[in-house]
């Protein structure tokens, strides 16, 4: 989990979100990921804002990069960026763009762009860590259910299962926005390719923590976080 002496709590997140304005169409995309992001950074990931480039850190890849307000809010709460910087979000000269930039923002592992890229990058990251002999770091990729319509995910899911990338976790935030869906549901889409799958209420922190708990398995893990969109409080 994140370690910082100045960390804020979950109760402060709505106020942090309200500091960012100007991209209202992606508000629901952001708020649907808020609880998952919080549980990851507060209870699951081994990351440290004082050592953001630690080679043995866990890697978190935000594939669902549009509407990154929730991500920036959590990074600010955990000390990766200053809270005051949230006020400049999306403005000229700000490091905080409408898509996160790994070169500019501390703690950001990938620069997100077109949807559907993150899981393939996660597979590559997991393979790279394996080649280096690093068995400690987890690679966690957050995607949306609509992203799974993108063809690159078909290949990434198949490769990860067949190569036994046990340190890879895909978190699919399912707010039922996908155009095509999948026969038998999202969990089946992963399980038929050899993944371990778990489903949890995407607003229930205890359920999410249990679903995301590390485990010793030879298979990658897919966590389906089911959510209903809601307004920023």
Topology (SSEs and partners):
Blueprint: H1 13-18, H2 27-31, H3 34-44, E1 59-62, H4 69-77, H5 118-131, E2 139-144, H6 151-162, E3 168-174, H7 186-191, E4 196-201, H8 205-212, E5 221-226
Parallel strand pairs: 1-2, 2-3, 3-5, 4-5
Helix pairs in contact: 3-4, 3-8
Protein name: Transketolase
Pfam families: Transketolase_N
GO molecular function: magnesium ion binding
Short description:
The chain is an alpha/beta fold. It has a single domain, classed as Thiamin diphosphate (ThDP)-binding fold, Pyr/PP domains (Rossmann fold, 3-Layer(aba) Sandwich), CATH 3.40.50.
Percent of residues in beta strands?
5-15%
Query: What's the domain count?
Result: 1
Span of the ends, CA to CA: 26 Å
- Class by SSE composition: alpha/beta
CATH topology: Rossmann fold
Tally of separate helices: 8
Mean pLDDT: 90
Number of strands: 5
InterPro entries: THDP-binding (IPR029061), Transketolase_N (IPR005474)
Protein name: Transketolase
GO molecular function: magnesium ion binding
Domain Transketolase N-terminal: 26-220
């Amino acid at each position: 989990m994140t370690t910082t002496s100045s960390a804020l709590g979950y109760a402060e997140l709505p106020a942090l979100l309200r500091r960012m304005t100007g991209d209202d169409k992606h508000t629901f995309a952001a708020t649907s990921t808020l609880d998952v992001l919080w549980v990851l950074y507060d209870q699951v990931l081994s990351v440290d804002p004082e050592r953001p480039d630690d080679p043995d850190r866990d890697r978190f890849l935000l594939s669902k990069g549009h509407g990154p307000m929730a991500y920036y809010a959590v990074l600010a709460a955990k000390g990766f960026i200053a809270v005051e910087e949230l006020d400049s979000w999306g403005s000229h000269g700000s490091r905080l763009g409408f898509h996160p930039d790994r070169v500019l923002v501390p703690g950001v592992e990938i620069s997100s762009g077109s949807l559907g890229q993150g899981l393939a990058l996660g597979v590559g990251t997991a393979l790279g860590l394996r080649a280096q002999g690093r068995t400690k770091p987890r690679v966690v990729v957050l995607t949306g259910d609509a992203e799974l319509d993108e063809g690159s995910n078909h290949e990434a899911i198949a490769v990860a299962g067949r190569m036994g990338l046990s340190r890879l976790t895909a978190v699919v935030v399912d707010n039922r926005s996908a155009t095509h869906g999948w026969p038998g549901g999202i969990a089946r889409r992963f399980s038929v390719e050899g993944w371990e799958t778990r489903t949890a209420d995407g607003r229930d922190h205890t359920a999410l923590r249990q679903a995301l708990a590390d485990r010793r398995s030879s298979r990658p893990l897919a966590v389906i976080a089911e959510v209903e969109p809601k307004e920023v409080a």
